[in-house]
Amino acid sequence: MTTEDPAVTLLRDYLRIKSVHPNPDYDSCVTLLKGQAETIGLDYQVTELVKGKPILIMSWMGYEPHLPTILLNSHMDVVPVSEECWKYGPFEAVKEPNGDIFARGIQDMKSVGIQYIEAVRGLKEQGKRLKRTIHICFVPDEELGGIDGMGKYVSSPDFKKLNVGMALDEGLGTLDEEIPVYFTERNPFVVKFHCSGNPGHGSLFIENTAAAKVQYMINKMLKFRQEQKKLFDEDPKKALGNVTTVNMTFMSGGLQMNVVPNELCIGFDIRVSPTHNIVEFQKMLENWMEE
């Protein structure tokens, strides 16, 4: 029987923790990770700026601690799952004979957090000591936008004390053995369109409805999406960071089947490329709404 690498065992233990929304188990994550900090010999601090949403910082002190530090950031939470669509249970962390692990969070982004820990462990075991202090940060709430996690932490005195000079965070998942490093990132631009119109009975031809306006905005957004996808598909040199992605992720409204609603809401997850002017992009959306 082949002995599993301890780093892989740690990763699978982390993946088995159900830190999934809407009720992520952050306490179990922090307990597991604190144990690693103690084993490696790292200082650590747990900060809870919002009740039930702890932030864990591990610190490997450099020999010139006054210098700006390096922050290695990851988040503990994962998005909800549709278990019936999975080959294995999403929190079983099943490993197939070829080494592939199936679990929610394996790419986004528990594996990255464990990589940080194992990199520091390896360097310390080699007797290395770095000039700059390294902080490993595990935050909550990222999948909800990070407002109660990193959003509050960066404004806190504790964060300012870290004296961060450079930070690394997640990029995109990879399908092969190459792990790309990104020096820039697209700007998240989450938007909801609330479309109002005339209500009425479902048996009539109601004019100027919310649905007609929703259809107009969907057509505009998906046309723009297709244009960006064409740019990406036709140029093999383009990476995702060179184009703006658009995906409709939300729709709500309606009272009952025979009533034309006076309001419908649609939402889009947009990642605006650095090559797009964000002010001009927002103006484009506003023009569509005025139309």
TrEMBL record:
Record-listed Zn(2+) 1 binding positions: 75, 108, 170
Residue numbers annotated as active site: 77, 142
Cellular component terms (Gene Ontology)? cytoplasm
Gene Ontology biological process:
amino acid metabolic process
Signal peptide positions (record): none
Query: Member of which family?
Result: Belongs to the peptidase M20A family.
What's the name of the protein?
N-acyl-aliphatic-L-amino acid amidohydrolase
Source lineage: Eukaryota, Metazoa, Ecdysozoa, Arthropoda, Crustacea
